[in-house]
Design a protein that fits this description.
alpha/beta, Rossmann fold, four-stranded parallel β-sheet, 11 strands, binds adenosine-5'-diphosphate
Length: 328
């Protein structure tokens, strides 16, 4: 009997997930395995939303954001009984191994499955770039390109009206989206959770620029930054501080869900395709309980448990560069 391989997407969707699903399906077929799609993540696994896939099921999706397998969050799956129901469905369909495409929550769920006897390989996919053992997670590149384009547009109006704009971006506890899009978008200040910020310095920069004749300012704020003890509204806290300290009016833009959408960039399509190919190859070789990642252009894999225990460190070289370029 042919080996059967299941694939699911879980947690927050990320552009490039479809390109990864496509590669999982086609690589499995190339190894003479039978691919099965599981819809709505772990909740779909519990609800038995499982169907065979073929090469045609994944045609015309490489350029689409989101995920054709849908995504969901599942509280039930966090309990052993929920996972037992999921495992029973995998057994019912005689699925031998599972590819999980998702963020750290989803990969933590995958590790739980592996420990309970299901061979699993994880593919890191989240716009947040908050998973270690890979330079980038699937979806990050598209998200920062989207943010950068938004910053370009905000700058047009900021400079016309001579205004200070505070742009809040996603990333959960990570400052990667704020840092990369801020550096690429020419932001004046970047506030991230990983580095202590000094709002007085931000204000000084604004005033110094003002004296030099530059009357607009873009401040990137990561949603996970803690500003003056305010964990829920960092951009509002930054805005209040600047208005009180400088007397200047500020505007806030919270970019929100647009950061998740859109056609994946070249980088994300290539990353998805390479990681998914490697994931299925590992299953073909009988190596599971692993996460795939790309480091210095090489695709590798690590013990899932090890990878999840590491911290994805913010690139401080980029942070310092952004600081230098906006302080002169
Ligand atoms: P992401 O994968 O994007 O980080 P979540 O953190 O919401 O998104 O996780 C997605 C799903 O993974 C959860 O709804 C849950 O079903 C599963 N999951 C998350 N954490 C665990 C855990 N500690 N044990 C088992 N399953 C988990």
């Amino acid at each position: 009997m042919k080996k059967r391989i299941g694939v699911l997407t879980s947690g927050g969707d990320a552009p490039g997930m479809n390109a990864a699903i496509r590669t999982v399906v086609r690589t499995a077929i190339s190894y003479n395995m039978e691919p099965y799609g599981i819809y709505r993540g772990y909740q779909g696994l519990i609800n038995n939303e499982i169907e065979p896939l073929c090469s045609a099921s994944v045609s015309g999706i490489i350029q689409r954001g989101g995920t054709i397998l849908k995504s969901a969050r599942s509280q039930e799956f966090k309990d052993k009984e929920g996972r037992a129901a999921a495992i029973a469905n995998l057994e019912k369909h005689k699925i031998d191994a599972l590819v999980v495409i998702g963020g750290d929550g989803s990969l933590t769920g995958a590790l739980a499955l592996q420990k309970e006897g299901v061979p699993v390989v994880g593919i890191p996919a989240t716009i947040d770039n908050d998973i270690a053992c890979t330079d980038f997670t699937i979806g990050f590149d598209t998200a920062v390109n989207t943010v950068m384009e938004s910053v370009n547009k905000i700058r047009d109006t900021a400079s016309s009206h001579e205004r200070i704009y505070i742009v809040e971006v996603m990333g959960r506890r990570s400052g990667y989206i704020a840092l990369y899009s801020g550096l690429a978008g020419g932001a004046d200040s970047i506030i991230v959770p990983e580095v202590p910020h000094n709002l007085d310095q931000v204000c000084e920069k604004i005033q110094k620029a003002y004296r030099a004749g530059k009357n607009h300012n873009i401040i990137m704020v990561a949603e996970g930054a803690q500003v003056n003890g305010d964990q829920t509204n960092p951009s509002v806290a930054v805005s209040k501080y600047i208005q009180e300290k400088t007397g200047m009016e500020t505007r806030i833009v919270i970019l929100g869900a647009i950061q998740r959408g859109g056609a994946p960039t070249v980088n994300d399509r290539l990353l998805s395709s390479r990681l998914a190919y490697h994931a299925v190859s590992l299953i073909h070789q009988g190596k599971t309980g692993r996460m795939v990642g790309e480091v210095d252009k090489a695709v590798k894999s690590w013990e899932l448990e090890y990878a999840l225990a590491q911290d994805q460190k913010l690139d401080m070289e980029y942070y310092h560069l952004a600081n230098i370029l906006s302080s002169i």
